[in-house]
Amino acid sequence: MFDYVIIGTGFAGSVLAERIATQLNKKVLMIEKRNHIGGNAYDSYDSQGILIHNYGPHIFHTKIKKVWDYLSNFTEWHLYHHKVLGVIDGQKVPIPFNLNSINQLFPKNLAERLEKKLIENFGYNKKVPILKLREVEDEDLKFLADYIYEKVFLGYTTKQWGVTPEELDPSVTGRVPVYISRDDRYFQDPYQGIPKEGYTKLFERMLDHENIKILLNTDYKEVLQFNFETGEANLFGQKFDGKIIYTGPIDYFFDYKFGQLPYRSLNFVFEQFNQEQVQEVGTVNYPNDYNFTRITEFKHLTNQTSDKTTIVKEFSQEYIPGENIPYYPIKNDKNLELYRLYKKEVRKYDKLIFIGRLAEYQYYDMDMVIAKALKIIDDKIK
Ligand code: FAD
Ligand code: UDP
């Protein structure tokens, strides 16, 4: 009856379902553990009518025109450019830390000297990861690098990951490099925005097709069994000959045979206010204060007008299977090595396609997941 089973209805699963249904004209069963589609990009209206991102703030940004054009088939956009301020020494300064942040925090003479030296050493409009900046020899720049490291990265990273920046793959803190520029935006990608009617509406439009059936509230292991010895699968007790696309945690699929892959989880605490606005930008980071990492006020992102507002505070926590949700793969050499063992297992079976942030153990943004899904279909059609 079905040609494909897709486990998970986040961007990885949903883009593939839509493409398979419309471009390959094949039948798809989607199995989703949660009681809704959309994975971590899901949004909904809270009790005071504010559109919130239930699994933390999601800002769409990409350099890939093809990805933007693809999503634009299912949504119009609120053309939003995200801004983040970080509370440093009692002041709110632009993050990524940039030339404006320097000018706000340091006396004029020192700020001018630092700015000049940064431009001489790295060039204007360049992005320098903090761990790279810390390698400089110059005394003034060394002071600056240590300052940024301690005030912007050390506390935040320790809260978010439970380890220091050095204990993670450099690409993690490299996501938010020091920016030698006066551009205060969080991202510089040419395509940025928030779906005008929300992400959930976008997913609904993608998946509204007669070739797609969705089973919610179901862990796939309840209805689908995969035999690791024969490579055969059973769906609802009958032999299933089609392909299985899996977007959940890779170690769970293989019953943790090589041990658990560490992920990081979060606790989202939402607060409602009977006032129009509580902070000046979409997100305020708290690297040094409190137990949460950041506060996001959704109305900045969504452009919703209301005399009420809702914020979310993010408290990071250890991931415990069965208890909370794995949000972030923890990228370091040891974990990536363990991941590669699982990846080798996937390759043994023609039937299996593993894609997405959890199944590939990659710190993917939404656009990268969508690009990968589109490529799988393009390759297949070719
Ligand atoms: P997911 O969205 O996680 O979907 C996987 C789905 O599989 C889930 O619905 C899950 O319930 C389901 N599933 C798992 N196991 C099973 C099972 N056993 N049986 C059935 N179903 C199962 N990206 C951006 O581009 N911009 C942002 O601003 C941004 N902000 C983020 C903020 C936070 C706090 C987080 C956690 C992520 C953020 N991301 C952002 C990343 C974005 O969420 C991911 O790139 C995207 O969700 C990945 O899609 P996916 O389909 O791979 O995974
Ligand atoms: N980071 C930090 N201080 C900040 C912002 C980011 O230390 O003010 C580090 C931290 O380790 C964080 C990583 O950079 O986890 C990536 O930040 P990003 O905002 O991309 O995280 P995400 O939105 O994916 O949670």
Automatic annotation (TrEMBL):
Family: Belongs to the UDP-galactopyranose/dTDP-fucopyranose mutase family.
Domain named UDP-galactopyranose mutase C-terminal: residues: 151-363
Coiled-coil stretches: none
Class of enzymatic activity (EC top level): isomerase
One GO MF term attached to the UniProt entry: flavin adenine dinucleotide binding
PANTHER family recorded: UDP-GALACTOPYRANOSE MUTASE
Cofactor: FAD
Record key words, sorted: FAD, Flavoprotein, Isomerase
Protein name (Swiss-Prot/TrEMBL): UDP-galactopyranose mutase
Assigned GO CC terms: cytosol
Keyword Ribonucleoprotein: no
EC number of the protein: 5.4.99.9
Recorded superkingdom: Bacteria
